[in-house]
Amino acid sequence: MGENTMEFSEYFPVWDKLTPGQQEMISGSLVGRTVKKGAVLYNGGTDCTGLLLVKSGQLRAFILSEEGREITVYRLFDRDICLFSASCVMRSIQFEVTISAEKDTTLWVIPADVYKWLMEQSAAVANYTNEIMASRFSEVMWLLEQVMWKSMDKRVAAFLLEEAAIESTNRLNITHENIANHLGTHREVVTRMLRYFQREDMVKLSRGTVEITDRVKLEALGGDY
Known about the structure:
Distance between the termini: 42 Å
Helix content: 40-55%
CATH architecture of the largest domain: Sandwich
Mean pLDDT: 90
Low-confidence stretches: none
Number of strands: 11
């Protein structure tokens, strides 16, 4: 087993439940990739890249409106798997999502036809795939609830808290435009909310930076982020 496959086997949870032949099929088709921040790995329904498994880094899945506005559906971190980039495997899914790198990312790609074959051959892979789909569905439903029922000030507060947790810092290097793209709104709306937060001493704003200065007040506003 090559070094690339050995590493992959540690990241793919059901590797030990595959037969030697199935493991060999993955080993012979596995592709390692390193992408730079900002790179687009998958663009809607225009291609079928294959299943992505993140080794290290951070990916973002988002949808694009007809007007060109973005909204983040979910993010992927170390050991996370992206199925929507292999949506051609699951014809019942009509969900055009774009996958881009939020940070420099190292990942593996399993070709779509190989993963489809695996799902047909292995109950463990099929069950694992269903678990991932259920998890992603929960994330989409959570987003729907946020958009429908939460006011924008609560959504901005929750996003800042989530970003601070991801980056392990209260000083966020992020633009108002970036925040708007994550939340599916206009930059002007985000700017208005952040200025309000600053007046309430919850954040301190500077060019390209939002610093959380009163986490307790922000958490009270953002609720369960």
